[in-house]
Amino acid sequence: MSEIFNFKRFGTYFLYDLKQMWRKHSRPAIMIGFSIAIFYILWVLFGLVFNQTWNAPSIELRVVMFTVAFTILELYQAKTYGFLTEKKAGSAWLMVPASRAEKFVSMLLMTLVVIPLLFFLVFFAADGILSLLDPTYGKSLIGSAAELSVRFKEGLAMISSESPFVISVGAVIFLSVVGFFCNFEYFLLCGICFKKNKIGWGLVIIFVASTLLSILSAFSIPPIVRNMPAEMDPERAVRAAVGLMNAFEVFTCLLAVGLGWGIWYRIKTLQH
């Protein structure tokens, strides 16, 4: 068992991996996290130049900025371990005294936990500081999200009280987290599979898969709709909705596991 996974050796390797990630990717990661501050400065400067007024970006624009920054962070995962496809760096990584399982676990922890947490910390800290310093900035995203979460829970409770189909906050959070895991794993896998244009090939695969899925849906959904009864029994409709929700949860979890297996297999077969 110690040859497969040794906790002491894993701890040593994880610290080494963390130092390497910080040395190679700290600047881009911090830039992505501080994108809200960069966006704020540019917005204020444009306002001063064109309108001679000092106005901070609205909360809607900051939410859009957060979405853009988080998407960039997902795409950037193709770069974090992309060096594995290089002969010199990849060979050096294979020679590091740690088992394949330890390297795999460290890679997933770095990609799915450490990097997103660092991004959230930097992004929301910068957003909170700007909210304190500039009166025109308004509430921070964290403060606004707390209010929004209360309204979201109240909305779900209202829907659940009027419908036999219950939607829980936990289920929504679970699907969101697993969905983010799938995105991060996917671009990580693209990074260790493609030697060049890692992000580009990843986007091409998504485009092709989306196109094929759209074509398949165009042929399969209309017959299903035509065969549905004009008035469906409420109990049957609830069962169908619950089944669809459960199927989507299972599919998302299987996709995350499948991408994880793909990363493991790529590490196992990596040669230079």
Short description:
With 272 residues, this protein is mainly α.
Structure characterization notes:
This protein is mainly α. It has one domain (7-269). Helix content is 81%, strand content 0%. It has 9 helices and no strands. It has helices at 7-33, 35-50, 59-80, 87-94, 100-133, 141-162, 169-193, 198-227, 234-269. Helix 1 (7-33) packs across helix 3 (59-80). It is globular. 19% of the residues are buried.
Helix content: over 70%
Strand residue percentage:
under 5%
Q: On the 0-100 scale, what is the average pLDDT?
A: 83
Number of strands: 0
Tally of domains: 1
Number of helices: 9
Strands, helices and their partners?
Layout: H1 7-33, H2 35-50, H3 59-80, H4 87-94, H5 100-133, H6 141-162, H7 169-193, H8 198-227, H9 234-269
Helix pairs in contact: 1-3, 1-5, 3-5, 3-7, 5-9, 7-8, 7-9
Task: Using brief descriptors, characterize the structure shown.
9 helices; 272 residues; mainly alpha
